[in-house]
Amino acid sequence: MSTRSLTYAIACGTAALALTACGGGGSDTATMAAGDLSAGSAKAEAANLVVRARASLLANVGPLMQLRVNGIAVADTEVRETSYQNYSFTVPAIAGGDKVDVVFTNDLNANGEDRNLYVESITVNGTTVAATAEGVTLDRGTGAKAFDGVDVIPGQRSLLWNGALRFTAPGSTAIASTLSPGCKAFYEARPGFELSTARTLVTAATLAKPAKGTVLAEPDYGTCFTRATNHAADGVATFARNDYARRQAFNADSTRHLIYALDGHWHLYDAHTHARLKVLPYLAADAEPQWHASNPDLLYYLPTNGVGMQIHELNTATGATRVVTNLSARLKTRWPGANAAWTRSEGSPSKDGRYWCLMVDDANWKSLGVITWDRDTDTIVGTKNTNGVRPDHVSMSPSGNYCVVSGDDASGTVAYSRDFSQSKKLLHKSEHSDLAIDANGDDVYVSVDYQSGVGDIFLVNLRTGVRTFLLPSYLNGSTTALHLSGKGFNKPGWVLLSTYADTVNRQWFHRKLMAVELKANPQVHTLAFTRVASNEYWSEPHASVNRDFTKVLFNSNWDTGSATDVDAYMVQIPAGVLKSTGLPGTGTPPPTEALTVAVGSVAHAGYSASYVLTTNQAAACRASWSTGNSYGALYDDIAASANGLTHTKSLSLGSTGAQTVYAVCKATATGAEEEVAILLP
Q1: Pairing between β-strand 423-427 and β-strand 433-437 as defined by DSSP bridges
Q2: Is the pLDDT of residue 226 over 70?
Q3: pTM of this prediction?
């Protein structure tokens, strides 16, 4: 065991000390500072971190347990007791919201024995958090891989692999940073609050545009709702809006957020009081600001449009700035004409901010290639030529394992491994989308497929390549535009959906903010109406969610129809209310049976003909005069009923003789295709 200046803990039954109590509570064990084994009983009273743990031994060696706070190693010990005991540590002060890791470092299985660590809970400053509590995760891996966010599963007691059991320290600071004081009081007055799961078409209740900062209940869904900006009063040019759904609006502890103005300036706001704090220096227009993953004051940014190929860091509290990396020389070696490196203003780095996927352009904005940059080592770990085909944007997956290149060329949207040696096609084109983490800890691509039968909102698991249908965006003849935000990394298994610009036949999910579960037949919790009357780009809601999925910032013109009279609004929800209810969702799970197509009634009189097809599951069909075509190669649509089970076609013929036409149908949920011949006698 290391002799660093860490704290060692002695569990009940393992120390040669007389202990007055053993087996329960947070102050019943002896705690000793390294090199001061006589001070144990006095130190026990001051213990501020207790881990309740047990062991299975191998070769009479127990699991080594290391404790980290905000990434800094503060204590370690060998756990030898095979029944649960309290291991107490006196470490530097831990505040609510701090990150506490219990790390298992010497896993081994040999000679019929298996060394494992079992953790029941931690107690911080007298408050206990179970290993299985919501928000606790287990990041499996050895060394740095225990903290890379790659192989992550929900928290559990059994650490059967090397890895880090990762907690957020409870306490008033955590509560304060999650909710503003006004919304904290709002929900304390509503102890039984639950999010709505209703899927009914309602018209947004009449609500006058609220004064900035006034806490009110969203009239239809009861969430804590505030107006976050007033561009006229705040002195922000033309509008004060959230930048984009794919970009994290909130800093690491959700106490600050960014606001963008039409003149290209970036403004810093207090996420609790909604005060405009300052204009941020150095950032201009498409500077692509990205918050640091753990330091709430730090912000990364690029030169406008990535020209110069540098990444900078700004301390928003002090105004100090520094160059984190200058990629210019390295990129010019690879592509002599390289001039800009950026995501094209729509991408983000990995969850921990370590890995960045960037596209490289020349001075004429011709695409040269795509790279993966490692911030921690300042190295380029992979490159790929684009041969002049310019992506719509690029982005890094939360784990940092995949660079996702989104395009409207023949390649479509593709997830490449970090070094570009492997790839998976995710969609045939670029659509509004984001990258998120599912409940199993896997990276997922969440998007909409407007070319599918019902405009699928879907996810693709980047590890397995499996596509899962979530919801339709076409329903009863209607359509809608939408944005997705997967930035709630600390609440895996959920994505934020904001809808706007719907067409005829309004549906229950139009013009709303919704939390959507990332699984087949998902739960959908409606958070608020956006009150957006769509009028071009700046009026779009572009809703962005914070890491804990407790704050949502979105834009609204408050039903005025203005293209630029836009402010930002905020919805806040308590940390524990977003959960699956077990109720059936409105998504249609993929059927297990194969797609079948049957020919119904057929009519042929002179030069006119018609026919009806029926399918055993929702599908879209297209017509052809030749056999052997795929659905995507055809353009002659066959009209479908609302449920996608009945398909009717009327057509004019070139002669009156008997003819055969062909139909290709594609299942909405699975994408399976089936061709059928129709004889027109």
Answers
A1: unpaired
A2: yes
A3: 0.66
